[in-house]
Each structure stands twice: as C-alpha cells, then as structure tokens.
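Milestone M4 deliverable, item 7.
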Amino acid sequence: MGFFDLFGKKDGVVESLPKNDVERWVTDTYAMWSEYCGGVWKYIGGYQKNRSNASMMRGVLRRDWEISNHDDGVEMVEYLMLDKEDAQEEKIAGWDYCRACQLLGMFYVAGYMEREEVINLSKKACKVIQKKFSSWDELCQSYIEGYSQWRREVDSEFGGGMETDIQERNDIYQRLCQMEDGPYKLDWNLSL
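Output delivered:
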C-alpha cells in the first residue's frame, strides 16, 4: 500500500478514533499532550488522520525528534521504554512512557506505521505503565513532574515561559479529569 492509499479511502474521523476500550486506554496516556498541542485527546495520535495532518506530523517528528522513518521511530520508542535506573528516574518515568505511546500515535497519523502495529506496540508500553503505576493520577503526576523537569532543563531554548507552560499542562490535566467521559474515566486495570 502506498502512502497516499492510507488516506482518502475511509473517513479520517472514523480511522482516527479508537475502536475499543484498549485503544482508548492507549490514547488516554497522551491526552494531555494531544490537548496541549492543539489536537483532540479522543484521536489516535491526537489528530485526525488525513494528508494535511500527516505532513504536519512528519515535520514535527523530524524537527522535534529527529525521526524520519519507521525504524527511527521504533528505536526512539524502545529508548523511552528502557527500565529506569534509579528512584529519581522512576519518579518521572511517566513522562517517557506516555511519550512512547504518543510517538506511536504520531507514527500512525504520519503514515510511518499501520494501525495494527501502533496498537500492538502501544499495548506493550501500556502494560509496563500499568505495572509501574497504580492509577491514572499517579501516572499523570509522574508525567507532569517529568515534563516540568525537562522544561526547566531546556528553558533557555524556548525563550522563557516555562512556568506558564508547566501550569498549562496542570490545567489541562485538571480539565480532563473533570470530564464525565474524559480520558481518565476508563478502568486503570483494564485488561490490555
């Protein structure tokens, strides 16, 4: 199947939505990122799968992650999922684990991976997440702590605004928690 065969044959919204609770559990791990970046937490990869978003996503992957193909992506996901060495790394492991799932979703939107591979690799990552954390809140607090630490380390690259960005992630988390059918309402112990 060619790149352009991935788009246009089926409705992009339908192809972008999780098909079951397992797929939704996966997308919930990176719901904060999806909303922060202007996407929608309900979509795999945060964005509707279409040509325009595929192009945008490939650009973001190249610019921010130095990923330009399937194999580069798999390598980065494997790196993010490495066992954490010490207590401090464990405390912020949610940041890496959620980003691994986020990247897999981005690969789907970008056309670097088929849906089946994305979901299979995501399920492996999510099983690790379930073992390392006991709840959505614990995972999300680890994610925010990891994001905060990373943001403080690279603040000079962004030209300031660090505290505003950190607060925005916290605000998004609180808003998502308040939603009746929001991302953190699925059973944490869902069989993946």
